[in-house]
Write a structure and sequence with these properties.
The complex is a heterodimer of chains A (212) and B (310). Chain A has 212 residues and is mainly alpha-helical. Chain A contains seven helices and no strands. The longest helix of chain A is centred in the N-terminal third of the chain and has 29 residues. Chain B has one domain. Chain B is 73% helix and 0% strand. The longest helix of chain B is centred in the first third of the chain and has 37 residues. The chains are: A mainly alpha (212), B mainly alpha (310). Chains A and B meet through helix 1 and helix 4 of A and helix 7 and helix 11 of B.
Chain lengths: 212, 310
């Protein structure tokens, strides 16, 4: 029941991301999603709460809830971009696509043969939905920073899948994935800054016009 | 217990009478709440009753360009919403009329009311009213799926297609069992309630600025008794959707009709106060943002439906 509430909140944050018009709101929503995932990890393992689980969940919450938003807001500020998302696909169509993706991932989750049944029947569907939403954000948004957000949402989906399915996930793997994501966001923040300094914008659509 | 079984057949007409008598009071409560927030004394709570009484004693003025459609609009609109009132249960009580599938009829009676209001507005030939009609239709086309999907989620949860049995099964246990789903439906119904009744953040009932009006602009040419019908119809519509919302939020199902109905009635006046608070503390949304809000509500309704199908 409690994990279900967290999973539904995850779905709602994903829908919010699809409908959001401003970059700041998107960054904050992804931060909330990161914290929710940490809570999800703690809730699914609350019977056998080990130091490893605690460490992974808390470091994930701090990284995704505090450090990433800070990095991204800094990149936003230094790149001096406008605050609108500027999507190729508008918010209403994005929301409808999100609803379709949610139904599709539920359908898929029912048919997916899993070696071990997850804690909640919603979990696999929500994980797939997050991955699809992340992909959608990467494809349909113009600004480079939205693509970092899409990447983070995809990673969140994979993380949710791992949290629900693997009872004793190896500490080293989880931590190294977190470290990878951290480095990725760090580097992307620097790249966004440099792109904006070089071309006066961070519009990836314009990159198709580049010549060597 | 004997008393309750004795009173049971009287409850249905009593409920209908309550709706007919008290619905204008809801608007009075909303206006008084807004006045309190603005630091004014505000109009009397019974102001709408006075207005209706005054309008019913006036004559109507009809433009030469209008046809019978313009005169039929308010009458058919009021008849449709009166019929819709008969289907809506107050809390866990049985509604005056109920049968399998009445929730679909309810949605389409509200649709019929809107259709004839829009036709009457178009019949005046005023471009101004046509603009309001086009906005009303565009927004309600998005609000209707949200309402139907939300009700479908409730129907699926309770395993029944009649509003009375759906609402009588919405007890505390149902909230414990499917709380997240019901909370989503509450959010959806709240947005639909505000949009369908032309309240802030979708439409401002006080404004008479042509750029932003939606509902008010459609009824500008009606006068006298016709306008009274429209005002009374709007109050009944507020009652219908308010009862749907209050029956969901207040899950008191003791079996005692006075307690259940009374709690739901209190809930409706609390909702009216919440509407007043929303209107005092929020600005209208930009016209372009309204479809986003309504589609968002529709998406929430789909999520609720999916959760109930699980």
């Amino acid at each position: 029941m409690n994990t279900d509430i967290i999973l539904i909140l995850l779905v709602l944050t994903n829908l919010r991301l699809l409908g959001a018009g401003r970059l700041g709101a998107s960054v904050r929503t992804v931060a909330v999603q990161g914290v929710l995932l940490g809570v999800l990890a703690l809730l699914t393992h609350h019977d056998n709460l080990t130091v490893a689980v605690l460490l992974v969940a808390l470091s994930g919450m701090i990284l995704k809830g505090v450090v990433f938003p800070w990095l991204l807001f800094r990149a936003l500020r230094e790149a001096e971009v406008e605050r609108e998302v500027e999507p190729f696909v508008g918010p209403i169509l994005s929301l409808l696509a999100g609803v379709a993706a949610l139904s599709g991932s539920l359908w898929l989750a029912r048919r997916l043969p899993l070696p071990e049944s997850p804690g909640s029947s919603l979990l696999v569907a929500v994980a797939l939905f997050s991955i699809l939403v992340g992909l959608f954000l990467i494809i349909t948004r113009k600004k480079a920073i939205s693509q970092v957000l899409g990447f983070l949402v995809m990673e969140n989906g994979i993380y949710a899948f791992g949290v629900g399915l693997v009872l004793e996930s190896p500490l080293l793997v989880e931590l190294s994935v977190l470290l990878d994501v951290f480095v990725a966001v760090f580097v992307m923040g620097i790249i966004i800054f440099h792109i904006s300094r070089e071309f006066d914008h961070i519009d990836t659509h314009e990159l198709t016009n580049l010549k060597d | 217990m004997n008393f309750i079984s004795f009173i049971q057949p009287l409850l249905a007409p009593l409920q209908a009478g309550l709706a007919l008598m008290l619905s204008p009071l809801l608007l009075g409560v909303i206006n008084r709440t807004k006045a309190a927030f603005a630091g004014r004394n505000g109009q009397p709570v019974l102001q709408l009753y006075f207005d209706l009484w005054k309008l019913l004693h006036k004559g109507a003025v009809y433009s030469r360009t209008t046809t019978w459609v313009f005169r039929a609009g308010p009458i058919i609109g009021l008849a449709a919403v009166l019929l819709a009132t008969m289907f809506v249960p107050l809390g866990g009580l049985r509604s005056t009329v109920s049968f399998t599938g009445d929730l679909v009829l309810l949605a389409y009676l509200l649709g019929l009311m809107r259709f004839f209001t829009v036709l009457a507005a178009l019949d005046t030939g005023s471009s101004f009213e046509g603009m309001g009609a086009s906005r009303e239709v565009a927004f309600s086309a998005l609000a209707e799926p949200a309402l139907l999907l939300g009700l479908a989620a409730l129907a699926r949860q309770s395993g029944s297609l009649s509003l009375s049995s759906i609402y009588s099964s919405l007890s505390f246990d149902a909230w414990l069992e499917a709380g997240p789903m019901l909370a989503l439906v509450v959010a959806v119904l709240m947005v639909v309630f505000l949009a369908e009744n032309a309240r802030i953040p979708v439409d401002d009932p006080n404004t008479h600025l042509e750029l932003t009006m939606i509902h008010e602009v459609m009824v500008l040419d009606h006068s006298g008794p016709d306008f009274a019908f429209i005002l009374y119809g709007a109050a009944l519509k507020l009652w219908v959707l308010g009862a749907l919302l209050a029956g969901l939020i207040i899950p008191i199902r003791t079996g005692n009709p006075w307690l259940d109905g009374g709690a739901c009635l209190m809930g409706m006046f609390v909702i009216a106060m919440i509407v007043g608070i929303v209107e005092s503390s929020m600005a209208r949304l930009r016209l372009l943002c309204v479809p986003q809000l309504l589609v968002g509500a529709g998406a929430l309704a789909v999520v609720a439906l999916i959760l109930s199908l699980r």
